[in-house]
Amino acid sequence: MRIDVVSIFPEYLAPLELSLIGKARQDGLLDLNVHDLRTFTTDKHRSVDDTPYGGGAGMVMKAEPWAQALTVVAELHPDDGGKPVLIVPSPAGERFNQALAYELAEEKHLAFACGRYEGIDERVIEWAQEHFTVRPVSLGDYVLNGGEVAVLAMVEAVGRLLPGVVGNPESLVEESHSDGLLEYPVYTKPASWRDREVPPVLLSGNHGKIAQWRRHQQYARTADRRPDLLAGFDAGSLPRADRTELHHLGYDVVDGQLVRRDDA
Fold first, then answer.
1. CB 7, CB 144: distance < 8 Å
2. Which terminus of the chain has a smaller tally of CB atoms within 10 A, N or C?
């Protein structure tokens, strides 16, 4: 996969040289390039922003430097007939989640436009649709100073799904959100630590019981921390033991979906 990131603070993306993503770049699994937007300006001050039409606080990023930068990025796309995907981090975009990370991991070329100030001139987004599949994406329901933090998170979430990046692919299957639920709690040695014991089932060697315990812990943790995830959970094919556990947590299976009981 090729990834291009455009930012006025390219040094902000330095953490992408570390850990698994950095190793993936060294091993040739990920071709990641960071571009300084200011190199695409033409005035002596290398300015990338101006006052907003219509008034209001803050500044807006100018269209032409972005058009110049994105033109270069688009030309780097492999000649396979499709368009690269341009991700524009924005609190007004679709919510980023694990499902979207898996979707983006199937692409050959991703580009990220890191906005700053009050955002990028909207005409850039309209123009870019000629060269990219444009997707404004929000990391969450809050506002950051710029898109770089969101890009760090999204590149890591997508990059680790590429074949060969994570050493044990099975670990990806057991993570939070991979199946619509939060991950179960994990433990390591020693079995007794500061008067706190590892759950006995994990020491039993009974892999069937361990798997069931972990699954039930997922239900309990999700119900406690993210009950909204259970509202869309496909429960139609759950075994009786899982349905019983969910009943104890206050949920019943109705027409294949989980419904919170009024008495819970």
1. no
2. C
Residue 140 annotated as binding site: yes
C-alpha torsion sign, points 238, 244, 247, 249: negative
115 marked ligand binding residue: yes
181 in a labelled binding site: no
184 is in an annotated binding site: no
CATH of the domain at 215: 1.10.1270.20
Q: Is 12 annotated as a binding residue?
A: no
State whether 149 and 202 are in the same domain: no
Is residue 119 a known part of a binding site?
no
For residue 82, how far is the Cα from the chain centroid?
Answer: 23
Q: What is the pLDDT of residues 152-193, one digit of tens each?
A: 999 999 999 999 998 666 555 555 556 789 999 999 999 999
Residues 137, 91: Cα–Cα separation, whole Å = 7
Predicted TM-score (pTM) of the model is 0.84
Is 28 annotated for ligand binding?
no
Peptide bond into 10 cis (omega under 30): no
